[in-house]
TrEMBL record:
<dbReference type="InterPro" id="IPR036259">
    <property type="entry name" value="MFS_trans_sf"/>
</dbReference>
<dbReference type="InterPro" id="IPR011701">
    <property type="entry name" value="MFS"/>
</dbReference>
<dbReference type="GO" id="GO:0012505">
    <property type="term" value="C:endomembrane system"/>
</dbReference>
<keyword id="KW-0812">Transmembrane</keyword>
<feature type="transmembrane region" description="Helical">
    <location>
        <begin position="223"/>
        <end position="244"/>
    </location>
</feature>
<feature type="transmembrane region" description="Helical">
    <location>
        <begin position="121"/>
        <end position="140"/>
    </location>
</feature>
<dbReference type="InterPro" id="IPR020846">
    <property type="entry name" value="MFS_dom"/>
</dbReference>
<dbReference type="GO" id="GO:0022857">
    <property type="term" value="F:transmembrane transporter activity"/>
</dbReference>
<feature type="domain" description="Major facilitator superfamily (MFS) profile">
    <location>
        <begin position="50"/>
        <end position="268"/>
    </location>
</feature>
<feature type="transmembrane region" description="Helical">
    <location>
        <begin position="88"/>
        <end position="109"/>
    </location>
</feature>
<feature type="transmembrane region" description="Helical">
    <location>
        <begin position="146"/>
        <end position="169"/>
    </location>
</feature>
<dbReference type="InterPro" id="IPR051068">
    <property type="entry name" value="MFS_Domain-Containing_Protein"/>
</dbReference>
<feature type="transmembrane region" description="Helical">
    <location>
        <begin position="181"/>
        <end position="203"/>
    </location>
</feature>
<dbReference type="Pfam" id="PF07690">
    <property type="entry name" value="MFS_1"/>
</dbReference>
<feature type="compositionally biased region" description="Basic and acidic residues">
    <location>
        <begin position="18"/>
        <end position="31"/>
    </location>
</feature>
<keyword id="KW-0813">Transport</keyword>
<dbReference type="GO" id="GO:0005765">
    <property type="term" value="C:lysosomal membrane"/>
</dbReference>
């Protein structure tokens, strides 16, 4: 009799455990279905369009780092002839300093909101503001060095989002195409570093005298900032209108019942 009761209790326990396990599986399926329905369906194909756009964006951002180098020192000397060269070193370092600080911050923000697009847009806006400050440098009497340094600090902060493009290239490509995808973004950075200083030659005909437009002097020194404002606008429009994030299914996803549903980035 006691054995029969124990057997019935064991059967009841097994039935309850089975029901609980079934309930957990159903909840897991509901969560997984909700996550996938609320975002773009993952794909196994490399998102080449968005990766190429990422390469263009990295090119645009790197140009703004390199294009100012040939003219910054001559420009500050025309505004402040008694400036010592040792003081100018801080201006050169300002861009890279804030880029180092803001790169991990952009990365943390991107992970927090599960997207790359919005940080890219904000980065372009910040860089545009930095270039606008540089363009207005001629109006800041007796504070030229500090204003130039401030403009480069701002531009460097905005460029911190370029690190997101490399990360995106790796997550939006299959394992077979990953090296090529990352090389696309890295190539944009390399080409921008090479082309940037050469673009200064375009403004040589303006000379130091330049032209005055609505009280703003456009010459060989200020024209790079104006060009960067234009290409920032182009980059902003490209990201806003053409950049679409894609999610790649990992090749080694563990589909066992003990694993939680995989997270899927939102498409914006």
């Amino acid at each position: 009799m006691s054995s029969k009761i124990d057997s019935e209790e064991d059967n009841s326990t097994l039935i309850n455990q089975s029901k609980k396990e079934k309930g957990r599986n159903e909840e897991r399926e509901e969560v997984q279905n909700f996550v996938i329905e609320d975002s773009e369906k993952p794909t196994q194909e490399t998102a080449w369009k968005s990766i190429y756009i990422g390469g263009i964006c990295s090119f645009i951002q790197t140009i703004q780092f390199a294009i100012f180098f040939p003219s910054m020192w001559p420009y500050i000397l025309t505004l402040q002839p008694d400036l010592k060269q040792s003081s100018f070193g801080a201006v050169i370092a300002a861009y890279s300093f804030t880029q180092c600080i803001f790169s991990p911050l952009f990365g943390y923000w991107s992970n927090k909101i599960s997207q790359v697009r919005l940080p890219m847009i904000i980065g372009f806006i910040i860089m545009a503001f930095g270039n606008l400050v540089y363009l207005s440098l001629q109006f800041w009497n007796d504070h030229y060095l500090y204003v130039m340094m401030f403009s480069r600090l701002i531009a460097g902060a905005g460029s911190g989002n370029v690190s997101l493009l490399r990360a995106y290239a790796s997550t939006a490509s299959t394992s077979k195409d990953r090296s090529k995808a990352i090389a696309c973004v890295s190539g944009g950075i390399a080409i921008g570093s090479m082309v940037g200083p050469a673009l200064q030659l375009l403004f040589t005909p303006l000379g130091a005298e330049g032209i005055t437009f609505f009280g703003l002097k456009i010459d060989i020194y200020t024209a790079p900032a104006l060009l960067c404002l234009v290409i920032n606008t182009i980059g902003l429009l490209i990201v806003q209108l053409a950049f679409v994030e894609k999610q790649i299914i990992l090749d080694n996803v563990d589909s066992s019942e003990g694993e939680d549903a995989p997270k899927v980035n939102r498409n914006n």
